[in-house]
Amino acid sequence: MKLYLVQHGQAKSKELDPERSLTEKGVTDTEKSVQWLVKINESVEKIIHSGKKRAEQTAQIFASFLNPSQGLISSTDLNPLDDVRIIAQQLDTEPDSLMIVGHLPYLTKLASYLLTGDDQLQLVNFQNSGVVCLIRQENLWFLNWAMIPENLSS
Q1: Percent of all residues in the chain with a pLDDT value above 70, rounded to a whole number
Q2: Whether the Cβ atoms of residue 104 and residue 51 lie closer than 8 Å to each other
Q3: How far apart are CA 19 and CA 95, in angstroms?
Q4: What mean pLDDT value characterizes the chain?
Q5: Taking Cα atoms as reference points, which of 115, 118, 116 lies closest to residue 3?
Q6: H or E segment at 47?
Q7: In this predicted model, what pLDDT tens digit does every residue of 69-126 receive, in sequence order?
Q8: Using the 8-state DSSP alphabet, how is residue 139 labeled?
Q9: Could you give phi then psi for residue 152, rounded to 5 degrees?
Q10: Cis peptide before 68 (omega within 30 of 0)
Q11: Residue from 44, 51, 59, 67 nearest 9 by CA
Q12: I want to staple 121 with a disulfide (CB 3.0 to 4.6 A). Which of 19, 105, 112, 147 is the partner?
C-alpha cells in the first residue's frame, strides 16, 4: 500500500476568513505539488480529507489532477487533535493507493504511529502543500519519500 499524507495548503488567518480558505500561495503551492506527482506518474485511488475548508480545497486540487477512481471523501476523524489510531486501524480496508489531506499535529502523529507505533515521536516535518509518501510492505510501514513545494523547480 502507498499512503500519501498531505498537509493542507497555506490558509488565510481566522481574522481575514473565519473558514480559513486557502491563500493564493496555498493554491499555487498545492498545484505545484500535484503537478510534480503527475510528472513522476504517482496515482491515488481515493482521497480522504478533514471537513475543514482548507483541507477540502487542497484535496479538491489534488483530485482535479489525479482523478481518484474512488473519489474524494470527507472524514470526521482527521481533525488536528483526533486520535490517529482510528484511521490507522481502517487502513487495512482502504485501497492500495490512498491520500489523506489534513492538519498538524495529526499528520505528524499519524506518520510516527505508523512508522514506530508511538504517535509522540516527531519523525517527519510536514509543510503546507507538502507530501509524505509511506509504503506498507508485509505489515510494516516505511518512509518512501517526502517533498515540499519550495524544493520543486518552477
Answers
A1: 99
A2: no
A3: 31
A4: 96
A5: 115
A6: strand 46-50
A7: 999 999 999 999 999 999 999 998 998 999 999 999 999 999 999 999 999 999 999 9
A8: T
A9: -95, 145
A10: no
A11: 59
A12: 112
DSSP-assigned beta bridge partners for residue 145: 133
Note whether 67 and 57 are within 8 A (CB): no
Q: Crossing angle, helix 53-66 and helix 24-39, to 10 degrees? A: 30
Q: Angle at the Cα of 126 (from 124 to 131), degrees rounded to 5? A: 100
Alpha-carbon distance of 99 to 150, in angstroms, equals 21
Distances (CA, A) of 60 to 15, 109, 111, 117, 153: 24, 24, 22, 30, 23
Q: How far apart are CA 12 and CA 26, in angstroms?
A: 9
- CA-based nearest residue to 43, from 66, 59, 26, 27: 66
DSSP state of 92: G
Domains in the chain: ranges and CATH: 2-151 (3.40.50.1240)
